[in-house]
Design a protein that fits this description.
- With about 90 residues, the protein is an alpha+beta fold.
- The chain contains 1 helix and 6 strands.
- Strands 1, 2, 3, 4, 5 and 6 form a 6-stranded antiparallel β-sheet that branches.
- A hairpin with a 2-residue loop joins strand 3 and strand 4.
- The radius of gyration is 13 Å and the shape is globular.
């Protein structure tokens, strides 16, 4: 399951998975998606390794921005991933 996290100024949607466990280690998948005239740009990063598993359409500069964004938000993403997403009042 993917939980919404944030929408950026350019309509890029950021979602994250629940906490995933493999070999006793916890991880979270973070998905970035932006609509285009012909479909979507898509990227996915696995935390805490910051391993990019998908990039279809985003530039190197955009991926660098997303990675910096993740370094600033990883603690919150893990928190929300463990509690079923962001809950707004």
């Amino acid at each position: 399951m993917m939980y919404p996290y944030m929408t950026l100024w350019d309509d890029t949607e950021i979602c994250h998975s629940q906490i995933l466990e493999k070999d006793g280690k916890q991880s979270v998948e973070v998905h970035f998606e932006r609509p285009t005239d012909s479909g979507f740009c898509t990227a996915r990063c696995s935390l805490p390794e910051y391993c990019w598993t998908i990039n279809e359409g985003f530039s190197d500069d955009e991926i660098a921005f997303f990675e910096e964004f993740l370094h600033h938000n990883a603690h919150l993403i893990f928190k929300y991933a463990s509690s079923g997403g962001v809950h707004c009042a």
